[in-house]
């Protein structure tokens, strides 16, 4: 089974976003509704849909050569795997998720120590136990099968739960008293696979193209023409990070600028470019950026 | 909080069927998409949506007075609760579900003993461990977060999984080698609640009406007229269980029969009734049956 | 155009419930998605879909002979029409709706008088103006095109809005300080149509059957057998309103009872009937009840 | 394969209605989206989904013992099959469908003879050819793969097409000039299967129960109490067809009537019953009627 | 509350298109299904969903600093607001909508004057009254709650109604006899906000970027290579409006052209460019165009 | 009717893909759900939706000037039409479909000759008859109205059926024993229309733009900067087919490359470009490519 990379795709909330990212990166994954073995248009890769919670376990044991999962579940399972790159694409935004300790709004609990002797419900049982053990706070940690945030105060005293914006916690009248961990998606590999040259090269190509596609989603291309006299002023408006490509035009008084820019800056930069003398400003979408 | 029954409704696959059964029984439960505290049109009851997996745990501890869950999860949690009645209404049919030990079709495993030293994936970890321990078969039991049936042979050697018809197992090319347990929905109560006369009476009323509604779904009413001369022949065709109500008619040669019958028998019984001299045979639907 | 009744069906939130009620009553109305002139399987009736807000206006002027609309809109338009019957079937429940005066939770307003000089947003402009004028409270009443409950405090000081349970008002942090009117669906008729014998008879038939169908939705049939010795005890358990039909059985020691009962009473009555000696208790659904 | 009836269920527009009718009749057919071999809860029957157009062909050849299809396709295929019963349940109504000859509204064609030498598009090619041949009118009949009613005048001169209400024809500005055939669903059997005693008995049971379920859908039960003095008047109001069951009540001045009635008559009969002295009039739904 | 712009987003048919336009322009608006206060990823802006009909009223009074609404509703309310720019993006197309006076196809009305003494139904009551008053034609104008186009002739003699293509009017057999107004979306501002330098600058930035995004939706980028000898011929084929950017290539006989073009012209221009000697013609999409 | 091209759009499985391709090519087709005459934003074209099976028949007869259909149906109808271009856009992929002869997996049939005397079901009756006649194999070919792949072995011995990946055949346990034809979408024209200069020019423009849009869907643009010293190495990495456009930059040591590339090659080429010294590599999407 040399020259075949066994790749785990996270089943569930990240699945569609992951498949979309691979498509942008250049690999088409076909996941029919029922099968857990999606096909991929690359004869060197074999895909399997695996729950994010179990991914690190199976990558560690070598049932998979590589996979995508959250850092939270790598830590929960204490898996010994190679971390290739972080990929910050979550369902709704690009922010990282947080695992927090939350208690009822009107409870007296203010800090982790206040929960000594209490019951904590969470999906992240092992991580939570280690966290409280490290602080020498005795608590009872119960596995929660879901809907964790509705449990306090009836079914638990506090919870350790994942959140992006905190809105679901607020809606359930819970108050965050501590952030235990921040987490984002990781591209991880089995240690033996990483030591194999062919597999490592394949994993690195995937990593480069996934990052190239991800970067292109938050950047845009910008072209404009500038009178040579205004060139410094216009360049001064651009973020310092990437210098633009400047090319001659038939009209010797003008040059053309072509640059890439973070999508979030465009609404501020374009008005300044125009004020500085930029003309014919055109923004165009990108598919990949590999600088 | 006397005169208030805290009732757990199973969240998830049984939720809609449970709410429908309560409606047939005479209680309307309004579950808005987001809230875990559905309202009910009975001031003496407070509802909470709880996962079937956790129901027995919370009924045992008294956070809930009573609830509905599968017998499988009562056993998994080894909860010390009062079993009031079985309610055989599952999503698709009225058959019980089974938890089975399944292995890949083409594997050499033929009986539980063959799995000594192997890895078994299941949602029912504690029950499975006890099962194999009782047989003195050493196995590694891993918790499965879902999609258990696709794990063999790549991610596990065998699984313990729930099934109604076995079709999902067959579709994943698995072979059943043992049935570990049959399970059906249980109406369970907290032991202290059961000892409280008001709560016990309320629970018994619920039990009577839920059973009455459930029975009505599998039975129908049948009315027909019979010449007195044919009465014995007609009665002979009816199942022996319930004797029909026979009433006089204005026409002294005839009587009217009114009876209830299992829905599944109707297609066989009506042709026989007609052959035996039944006339004006009318089947009508029932809403509750309390014999 | 004699012997043809022009009937207005309320377009919008009541439409499906109205058409369903007519079907239960014995008239099938076919409303294709686009047409405002649904067909009906009664050659003596012509239907038109009309907004509840405008129904009374067109019934008053005679463009329609009869129609269904809320009492609120009859009052808003001060229409001079004949009220035939109330029909309490709303989308969600059978309770009446209320039009209330609501203000921001944290505002100082406590009673209508506190709103002197303020702006009130409502869909029911004329009724609201008359209400405040009658109390000699000067206010500015603005027509609201919708989403009235989000307007205070930014876009209005208070609102007059319809509500069933108050939950939408609470969700928008509004406080009710006065109920201005309760409203339910009315079957109304044009005064000239009501004076025409053929039209009046047709309207009365509709009214009888609509009420018969509506009553059947909140009532059920109950049959049981009783030993003659227990008859008084069993009858004592039944609500006094409707005496049951009691018939002889072939077995001279027993009688059969057949009665109708409010759906909401069944869960209390059946356990009592059984305790009093009722046997073979069967509840069955009804399609129409005309006592 | 004795004691096994091979039954064809029509795939397509009639499929859901057919399965619903079988459920009412007492047989549950489970058709999963993809399989053409639905399961049925009767070990003596094997189902197969077959296009209505091909059903008669396969019943004739014995690949199926019995099946449901339209009379139109029996005639198109000139199949030599046994017709057991007509079953008038179509998707929208209970009226029969018609196959008509239709031409553009503004064309000069007035009768079949006017189409001599013209092109006619239809799905019913053989029947149409025979129809025109019998009249000695030479026409070109082309098979239409669908959307037949949009073909005139661009792609055909006339069409032979199925219609229930004619509304699709009118919408396409076509005019009917002749009705070639009326058609309704037929329960048909293979001639050899009909000669086999066991199969014939099975087919007859199906026929009795399908008809019993179908009749129940257009009939209702009616119960009322009548003072003996009013009995003749009340009976005079009922349709003559079925005499009611009259039973004694405990109160010797009254009798109870129980009868069945066409659903479409109820809205006229109930007001008359009440006027004639009927009391406690209750309509209830039926599931099967076998008189 | 300085440095905070209160911005009204039109609720309803324009809402999704408006939010999409803002996203193209560089602002992400998150409108959850229930809230009327969508969040926006710009700390300097506060959004509120407001009906287009009420927008101008609230911008005029200063409850909002700026907002988007149709010119029709600015006129209906006779609101004294600053008009910043027109934004021709409607749901279906980029054409303006028209408010027209329409009458039944077979009515005798031919011009506004013919409606003297008649009843006109419309949502635009005040505008319509002023229109007829200006012409000294006495009419009765009634507010229509919706479905205006089905009212003539039963419920009104004529209507004033909005239309894009006239197809809904034709479907209701109405005939347009006059166009009263053309309307398109306006970006409007409160007069005091417009006088505030910070708010004005913010509004102007929004206006520039909204227009830049809107223009990019109807334009494309075009790149091609041209032999210097063919340059004039190729340039002659391009629309005169925007001169292309011409740049040198390594091959001294060729130049590269880069230009933008209206999307609707591409299908005519590309064949001509190729015929004139253009090579390697590539069209690419644009995200913003600020010339 | 000169200067008007009558164009057939395939109704059914290809319809949406065809309309999307025309939109990419520069023509917007509006197909409302019911009408078979979609509008198009080109006054010189008239569209009609026609079944792919019938398209060639109507193009041949001149009812349509041009149309899109599969090569399979051109052959089935043996239509004498002009084939303008192939357009390989099918619903799921760009591969061609195949018509294959398939038999039950466990049948003894191995080659076409083995089917002598057997029954073959297919939608492609005439083509199949000619195929077997040419081989002198006597078979019975029956028209299949659909669901052809479930017919063997009960209803037919073998089938001739269309397939892309063979998965539906495998799912029905069928085995392919011969490929009779490969087919892809054809843009075809009536011979007289092709001889008319105006129509021919219009058809050629459509063909150029449809191909330009289709090519753009499988290609991308790639821009990068290269040190002059690395230029040969970088160019060596690019596929030989299209030479890149190379332009001077202000920095005399660097040049800019702009090229187009098959989408499927990008994931291999970008890593090599970077390794060869490419910098600032940017991939951007294309809308049309006309080389």
UniProtKB/TrEMBL annotation, chains A, B, C, D, E, F:
<comment type="pathway">
    <text>Amino-acid biosynthesis; L-histidine biosynthesis; L-histidine from 5-phospho-alpha-D-ribose 1-diphosphate: step 1/9.</text>
</comment>
<dbReference type="Pfam" id="PF08029">
    <property type="entry name" value="HisG_C"/>
</dbReference>
<feature type="domain" description="ATP phosphoribosyltransferase catalytic">
    <location>
        <begin position="51"/>
        <end position="211"/>
    </location>
</feature>
<dbReference type="GO" id="GO:0000105">
    <property type="term" value="P:L-histidine biosynthetic process"/>
</dbReference>
<dbReference type="InterPro" id="IPR001348">
    <property type="entry name" value="ATP_PRibTrfase_HisG"/>
</dbReference>
<dbReference type="GO" id="GO:0000287">
    <property type="term" value="F:magnesium ion binding"/>
</dbReference>
<keyword id="KW-0963">Cytoplasm</keyword>
<keyword id="KW-0460">Magnesium</keyword>
<dbReference type="InterPro" id="IPR011322">
    <property type="entry name" value="N-reg_PII-like_a/b"/>
</dbReference>
<protein>
    <recommendedName>
        <fullName>ATP phosphoribosyltransferase</fullName>
        <ecNumber>2.4.2.17</ecNumber>
    </recommendedName>
</protein>
<feature type="domain" description="Histidine biosynthesis HisG C-terminal">
    <location>
        <begin position="216"/>
        <end position="288"/>
    </location>
</feature>
<keyword id="KW-0028">Amino-acid biosynthesis</keyword>
<keyword id="KW-0808">Transferase</keyword>
<keyword id="KW-0368">Histidine biosynthesis</keyword>
<comment type="function">
    <text>Catalyzes the condensation of ATP and 5-phosphoribose 1-diphosphate to form N'-(5'-phosphoribosyl)-ATP (PR-ATP). Has a crucial role in the pathway because the rate of histidine biosynthesis seems to be controlled primarily by regulation of HisG enzymatic activity.</text>
</comment>
<comment type="similarity">
    <text>Belongs to the ATP phosphoribosyltransferase family. Long subfamily.</text>
</comment>
<keyword id="KW-0067">ATP-binding</keyword>
<dbReference type="GO" id="GO:0003879">
    <property type="term" value="F:ATP phosphoribosyltransferase activity"/>
</dbReference>
<dbReference type="InterPro" id="IPR013115">
    <property type="entry name" value="HisG_C"/>
</dbReference>
<dbReference type="GO" id="GO:0005524">
    <property type="term" value="F:ATP binding"/>
</dbReference>
<keyword id="KW-0547">Nucleotide-binding</keyword>
<keyword id="KW-0328">Glycosyltransferase</keyword>
<dbReference type="GO" id="GO:0005737">
    <property type="term" value="C:cytoplasm"/>
</dbReference>
<dbReference type="InterPro" id="IPR020621">
    <property type="entry name" value="ATP-PRT_HisG_long"/>
</dbReference>
<dbReference type="Pfam" id="PF01634">
    <property type="entry name" value="HisG"/>
</dbReference>
<dbReference type="InterPro" id="IPR013820">
    <property type="entry name" value="ATP_PRibTrfase_cat"/>
</dbReference>
<dbReference type="InterPro" id="IPR015867">
    <property type="entry name" value="N-reg_PII/ATP_PRibTrfase_C"/>
</dbReference>
<keyword id="KW-0479">Metal-binding</keyword>
């Amino acid at each position: 089974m040399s020259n075949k990379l066994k790749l785990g795709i996270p089943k569930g909330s990240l699945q569609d976003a992951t498949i979309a990212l691979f498509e942008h990166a250049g690999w088409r994954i076909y996941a029919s509704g029922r099968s857990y073995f999606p096909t991929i248009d690359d004869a060197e890769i074999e895909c399997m849909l695996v729950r994010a919670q179990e991914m690190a376990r199976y990558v560690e044991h070598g049932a998979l050569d590589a996979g995508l999962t959250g850092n939270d579940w790598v830590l929960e399972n204490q898996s010994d795997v190679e971390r290739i790159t972080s990929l910050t694409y979550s369902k709704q935004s690009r922010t990282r998720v947080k695992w927090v300790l939350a208690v009822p709004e009107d409870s007296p609990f203010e800090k982790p120590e206040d929960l000594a002797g209490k019951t904590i419900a969470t999906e992240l049982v092992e991580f939570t136990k280690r966290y409280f053990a490290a602080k020498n706070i005795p608590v009872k940690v119960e596995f929660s099968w879901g809907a964790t945030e509705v449990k306090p105060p009836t079914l638990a005293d506090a919870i350790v739960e994942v959140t992006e914006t905190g809105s679901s916690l607020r809606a359930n009248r819970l108050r965050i008293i501590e952030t235990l961990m921040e987490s984002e998606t990781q591209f991880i590999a089995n240690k033996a696979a990483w030591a194999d040259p062919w597999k490592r090269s394949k994993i690195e190509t995937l990593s480069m193209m996934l990052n190239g596609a991800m970067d292109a989603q938050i950047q845009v291309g910008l072209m404009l023409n500038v009178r040579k006299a205004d060139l410094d002023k216009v360049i001064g408006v651009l973020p310092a990070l990437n210098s633009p490509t400047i090319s001659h035009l038939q009209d010797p008084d003008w040059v053309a600028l072509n640059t890439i820019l973070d999508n979030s800056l465009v609404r501020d930069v374009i008005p300044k470019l125009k004020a500085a003398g930029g003309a014919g400003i055109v923004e165009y979408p990108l598919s990949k950026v590999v600088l």
